[in-house]
Amino acid sequence: MSAAAPLFIGLDVGTQSVKLVAYDPASRRIVATHGQPLELIAGNDGSREQHAQWWIDAIAACFGKLDPAQRAAVAAIGVSGQQHGFVPLDADGNVLAPAKLWNDTSTSGECDEIMSAAGGEANCVTLAGNPILAGYTASKLPWTRKHRPEVYAKLATILLPHDYVNFWLTGQRWMEYGDASGTGWLDVRTRTWSREMLAATDADTNLADFLPPLVQADASFAIAPGIADQLGLPRDVIVAAGGGDNMMAAIGTGNVAPGVLTMSLGTSGTLFACSDTPVVDENAGWAAFCSSTGGWLPLICTMNTTVATENVAKLFGFSSRDGESVLEGTKPGADGLVMLPFFNGERTPNLPDARASLHGMDMGNLTRGNVYRAAMEGATYALRNGFDALRAAGMSFDWIRLTGGGSHSATWRQMVADVFDLPVQVPEQAEGAAFGGALQALWAFERANGRDTTIAAIARDHVRVDASTAARPNPDAVAAYATHYQSFLTFLDSAQRLYAPHPDPAR
Ligand SMILES: Nc1ncnc2c1ncn2[C@@H]1O[C@H](COP(=O)(O)OP(=O)(O)O)[C@@H](O)[C@H]1O
Ligand SMILES: O=C(CO)[C@@H](O)[C@H](O)COP(=O)(O)O
Known about the structure:
Layout: E1 7-13, E2 17-24, E3 29-37, E4 41-42, E5 48-50, H1 52-65, H2 68-72, E6 74-81, E7 87-89, E8 99-100, H3 108-117, H4 121-128, H5 140-147, H6 149-154, E9 157-159, H7 161-170, E10 175-176, H8 177-180, E11 186-187, E12 192-193, H9 195-201, E13 214-215, E14 220-222, H10 225-231, E15 238-240, E16 243-244, H11 245-252, E17 261-265, E18 269-272, E19 287-290, E20 296-302, H12 306-316, H13 323-327, E21 338-340, E22 357-359, H14 368-392, E23 400-403, H15 410-420, E24 424-425, H16 432-448, H17 455-462, H18 475-498
Parallel strand pairs: 1-6, 6-15, 6-16, 10-13, 17-23, 23-24
Antiparallel strand pairs: 1-2, 2-3, 4-5, 5-8, 7-9, 11-12, 14-15, 17-18, 18-20, 19-20, 21-22
Helix pairs in contact: 3-9, 11-16, 12-14, 14-15, 15-18, 16-17
């Protein structure tokens, strides 16, 4: 390796783009950030797919934007990725089909079939900690068996998106616990595959044979020499275990000890806490996931966050990055407009067939600013609705750490503070998932070099919040939003009746 200060690379394979951050822990500076957009294949049946090769091409393009000295200084890489995607490989490691993603609702029938075979939703929670919700990896296997029999016939390994990137980087197949818990097959209490859930998914095959070994969060692997040469990196670069994007955003926002709540405003909206012990809700009010630090990560995920704001921005022909000027003059409550933002169907609440709607229009309030604001408010209320389940279980928080693309908007930051009535902090590194990848890479590097560092100590030393972007609840706005949130819940109630999913056959 070169004598320059070692750099730690975090990669985040998001839904809309791949992001790379290069972090110098000695100076505590991000020395480079690069992004590359991703396409999406969207079908009328709710399918949402990407080619795994697109992720690889985007990653290679991001590395290509680093200067040669930066590439020569890379010591370790940590990969974060959108959760739940299904990447089918044959025995030689060839990808057999486009990856069905976390927001693909075309397999909601298969979710019901698996839950029925497992004895119903409540029994899934007993067996593994989670029901099989729209988008979870498990449902994509029977769908593949039915709709892509030629893929099923050759299937040798199932990988998640970030696992596939790790496989490309190292030639090795593994999963870590955080992302593995989003398959629906991992018993999160014992951190072992649930034989019952695997059998309920496919009674004719031993699905465990398709799953790679599970590794600890501080594991490390050698980069494949050919890939190091292709990317212009040293051949002794190590690759960390990686993790699902929310697990990595937990690291990147310093959410590695109980008491912190992170919110990510990306394509999806997520809210999560971390715990040293398994946290399972018998009523399945949240996703009982594992973290990528050896612990657990109770999480709420909605499928339509910047999806909603982006759709409105596209309709009116502006970029969401210029959204602050469009919002000028608008007020909490969007002058009476209420949006249910379910453009993609929804997971929290479980309404995979739902669609978006706009309510409260009159002769004067239908402006682009109000509609854009209603989209932002609707996406925020949807998260607030999920948050109530965490609070009902007795979890309490003093702060929200905000990350993801939406955290760049000052209006959205203030809205989150007011809707949740909690102060908001934004870490200096707004790309929380990619930064988490860089910190996990640093952890793996330290461990590989015999140093007994913990991820909590690394996060404490390297995650810093940006005082200039903090937002505190404004009492007038808190009161106004409390009223508007009630309107949202009333409209949500009718949507729940209109789009109710299939009844649980076991109830
Ligand atoms: N200033 C901004 N105001 C509102 N939204 C923004 C702003 N900047 C970025 N975004 C939104 O963030 C999105 C990207 O978020 P990101 O967390 O990177 O998504 P993902 O990880 O799902 O690919 C953009 O598509 C855009 O909608
Ligand atoms: O499904 C979930 C969490 O369970 C999503 O949060 C995905 O992990 C996608 O993340 P983004 O692309 O929105 O970052």
